[in-house]
């Protein structure tokens, strides 16, 4: 795929002629669709109707349209409109153009543009904050699937080039599809060309039709190319339903007129019924009737069926159901079948397996034939093997992500305390990489009318980070409630981490000795962490007195009502690294109207190319614009600024805590010393 251009101009470029400019009208069709689930279907019908209309005009470039080009254009439109509806939710503008390139060799291309009215980034302050230009897409990089939709990978495969353009209040995703085997004639098309155009219009028309295919293409070169394309599209997909959707679009209409995919319920036991995950038909109007027919007569393969093809009677016949019996008395001979192809056709079923386990079933069918060619059946069998690997990988990722989320929530407090005289707001967003993160937080009461708050970040991620988090948070609560000062708490926690690391090293040495002196690489990480720990005591005249200490952590920032911002602590060494260290704390008053911001490095080190969010005191500038805002609004503004700093979603945990002193010394909650806080998961 060619690099994504930084900006695509919609105006005509030098050397570009609108197709049909010499012998017909300027070919460009546009429509607007509401941001609802029915928009993709309407967009597909619009594209097919536009292509049929252009072909009927006898335009030279349109004569080069093929089934493959039409199917690719419909597929790309479906993916782009679906992404716009799901991720923007606004009205979607669709433009379809036919362009000619006047170079050494004449060529033509279909250009599709899908525009959503995504809100433009707000401008805050007079000076622009460091970050990428809003009208540029990062060259050569695909948007993250978890945020922008995995359909763009399919678009990148089908399109000659594609890209994203940002304008004020608008985002446009465009794709360019070359017209197959076309050379512009010097004169208007003759009668034969017009007849070919009418034939193409008939093929491209949105009316129901049976796809014409040539099975001879699946020779020694066609089959490997198809399997390679399928492997690329299926690999790396992390959702089994998405895998099934892609598989359906690959099979239909290339190899079959329709297909259905069942997936076994994971952990459901032998009695669990498989679920019908995907139904796909070459005729869009046939999808729902086909689904109804399959739900009426669920597929059941013999217990001993392997991965090879199993012939299935089609249409399905349910014993004891007269409506399914052929040649019913009194039924007109030309009665419409209950679903497309319901009275004739061939169907094959394939078991989806991975690692010796059955994961589901694929049923493919062709209409109007008595059997599926052996070469095609063998190709589908190879495809289903790859489908099984993709489904197995997606399920493994889902299991890991589920375990990580459960473990993450178990390591964090289900509720945090309300501090009298202080309103607080907490934002916690773990990264979407499927592993346990290292960030943690806590707010809890202590004896002596004290409240303590913690924001920490363990080095690394995964099980090792979970171990340190599981140790550090309970230790902090215990040490704080024993009456130790802020600096003393960090001193003792540092020694505990070093002792724990020493025990881990001794255990590793014993393992090495038991292994005959060979070094064992178990992937363990050093157990150290950065920590911001503070103690809050309400003052009789209003506000609170804060005592804070930072151990290798981003420094807390203190915001005054006049908009001035300053660090509220001094930098010190990480915990668990150096033994002979004495941590010091800083004391200051948080007067009514003052705000204290605490963040992890997922905020300060948020990257956009070579830049970081906190370059040039970027975090302090954003915080200065929050003067006078309540705690929750301040947290939301900073969270939004972090996300808008780069096009890609954050690749690290994002945690921030906002404490704002008010004039009251009563608890902010009526539910006792604790109040529930909702973290963003």
UniProtKB/TrEMBL annotation:
Using the UniProt annotation, give all residue ranges assigned to the region (Disordered). 118-143, 302-346
| UniProt keywords, alphabetically | Hydrolase
Q: Does the keyword Manganese apply?
A: no
* Source taxon at top rank: Bacteria
Per UniProt, residues of the PPM-type phosphatase domain are 422-661
Q: What name appears for this protein in its UniProt entry?
A: PPM-type phosphatase domain-containing protein
**Record organism:** Streptomyces badius
